[in-house]
Known about the structure:
- With 116 residues, the chain is of the alpha/beta class.
- The protein contains six helices and four strands.
- It has a four-stranded parallel sheet, with helices on one face.
Amino acid sequence: MADVTLDELRRRLGEQGLVLLDVRTRPEFEGLAGAHCDPRQGHIPGAVNLPLDRILECRSAAEVRELVGLAEGVEIVAYCHTGSRSGFAVQVLRGAGYEARNYEGSWHEWSRAAMD
């Protein structure tokens, strides 16, 4: 399954059945921390925060599903800062039975493009 592009994400934001999952730390999500290379801090509108370290604490697919708490049939788009953490999260989410894709450009790209 192909990664999500900036254009696709812009078109689909707010779409029913699409969950945007920010796997960065809570301070990154809230805009209290982040990379100095980004022109602004925060998160993509509508995203929910579930840090990767919490996902990795799970020992089974059932634990991942319990933590994520989403119904079957939703599509998850995960992002982080540069697509690395979210890429790993996508693999775990798929292993737990979710339809998950990575927004590889992640916050690094969004923080610039959203200013256009």
